[in-house]
Design goal:
Chain lengths: ~575, ~190
Amino acid sequence: MNQKTNSLRLMKTGAEILWDCLEREGVEVVFGYPGGAILPTYDEMTRHPTIRHVLTRHEQGATHMADGYARASGKVGVVLATSGPGATNLVTGLGTAMMDSSPIVCLTGQVPTTALGSDAFQETDTVGISQPVVKHNYLVTDVDELAFTLKEAFHVARSGRPGPVLVDIPKDIQLARSSETWPEPPISLPIQRGKATPIDRDCVERFGELLTAAERPVILAGHGVAMSGSVDTLRAFAERHDIPVAITLLGKGGFPETHPLCLGMMGMHGGAAVNQAIQHADLLLALGMRFDDRVTGKLASYAPHAKKIHIDIDPAEIGKNVPVELGIACDLREALDTLVPAIPATTHSPWRDQIRAWQGEADERDILRQPPSEGPLLAAEVIDALCRVTGGQCINVTDVGQHQMWEAQYFPHDHPGTLVTSGGMGTMGFALPAALGVKMARPDQEVWAIAGDGGFQMTMAELATAVQEGIAIKIVIVNNGYLGMVRQWQEFFYEQRYSATPLLSPDFCRIAEAYGIPSVRVSQRDQLTAAIASVQAHAEGPILLELVVEQHDVVFPMVPAGSDLDTMIRRPKATTEAAP
Amino acid sequence: MIHRQDPLTPRPVLVSAIAEARPDLLSQVTGFLRKRAFRDTRVTLGTTEHDHVTRLTFALASQGEAARLVRELRRVLYVLEVLDHSQGAVVARDLLLVKVSAGPTERAAIAQVCEVFRARIVNVAPGSVIVEATGNDEKLDGLLSVLVPYGIEEMTRTGPAVLGRSDEAVGKDLAESSWRARLMQATPPH
């Protein structure tokens, strides 16, 4: 054996380097689906048994699982997929993670570098196709750069405003050898230099002036509160300054909803009183949120009397949608820790009385104030029952649509990380795979995947993953036989022409049975609580609960898209009838 | 039809980015221009004094668009520095190549026009000449308006290349923070 062969033996293949890197990053689980261009990496996986591989039934499922895992664990979720269709199937999950700032790293196989650009079998321009939906992506064309690229990819995914990163690795790079050198110096990115707003004396003074002058302040708490670990700081801030807190959908859990200062969710399906408070406020403190159109309604008339302070870690968000008096691009916790102690305490009793009056008026219209005693179950009732039975001591993973909004309205969350949902992207099919990822990150927690009959059918193939991996989640299907949220828009804005929204579904319990998953179906009011309790008690593996609910129910209140935030379609007082 | 700046249109606002010369830099930049719905943006891209560093210059219609672009550019990982030229004094130059239809009788007149605009005739064919000119928007617009009556056969005009007038050299330390430099620092050659 000559010397060259000897030294080659000491060198590692790209695939070995990849798994070494994952081990060094502390990765415990990867979600993936094998294929031709990623085979060398899958082959090497057998020699790295410390990392668990979860075989999904579709690459989209893998991305949502990694996303759920990331949101529940605070670590980076990892996805493995092959080239071509494997990579294109990642796009929806990447977009979902991008919109909700979830740190995942997707590693895709690619045709060999020699075949790049030749329309080879299962070749696609993965970097090009994923570019608009990732925080950053890479095509590795030199095995010597692989370790550094992977290290940077993890750093980019989790640093600053987290997000998805994709690394495309041609097959010959996985096979090529390099003397792997793990880059020891910490990654420092130019993008992180000098972009944050310094919290200097001027900034503190301006913050203090605005806050002290305000008579009707409202805090808008977003996803950034929990992500930056500011939950306790925010609570102390709100209490010390007596400021009511409105939360975004992803902000749920960032401020306890049972707290007297909590107004609840804002926006399109937010509480009427919350939106009224925002429209009448004279100061909005937007913390770790991004003024999404579902939150603001018509921008031109949004909070017309309010000065705005916006604190967000992403400088590009400051002033993007709403002009602000004071914008601070900074980690929220850092900002609050510096700003809050510097300002004397305040009280706002008259303002809170006013909001309480609005809330009282809104409560009168609540359907659960006088729940029906006969007729079909209402979705609000079943969510409320779920909350009562579990005592709120669980993690809910919701899909997208009406049930998502009902969960947000009727299931108060007091702790961060107890609601995982696709907010920005609104990805139907998210709940089941994401819940699997959440449960893997938090095996000690009770995890409920709540989906509608439409969204569930988009990714229900992942039931097999749940069984194969023995992941004990509770799956709830809120079945109303419609693509309900779309049907609701058709009812309000398209003269009740229900185009393509009535939905045929299979017998979900028999589907579950085919996978060997126990199931319960409930359509009667008197069976509801007991059924939820029995599902909760089920300890071994996944279980499915189908709740058959009223077909024509509508999520109230609703701010029509593009309308003023306080022009809401509201449930008529003391009646369960849906408005026309 | 020649695209010319309307004399009443405000002068474009210029923004530069100094970025790593990665193969996908251009697609990243054009990608976000599309994604973030920037319209009427001219981009010039070229090499710099550093091997692995590229300089891009954007000409935008308004100050608001420029501010938005600055925020978005800072999101691109390969971008090392962003320079908003709306305040500082800069030298900004476009390059214009224009083929003007010109027989033997018109050539002399066109040559005279070129002299006034400090442009040059760089090619002569039996029925046309190619004029080369560099300058800011106003100068090139002015030259074109004089050449139009002769008949413009073909034309290409780049966006601006820009450098600040002061002694300060902004790109000086940036090469050290480029991906290539970070890679070399992290994984020394073996």
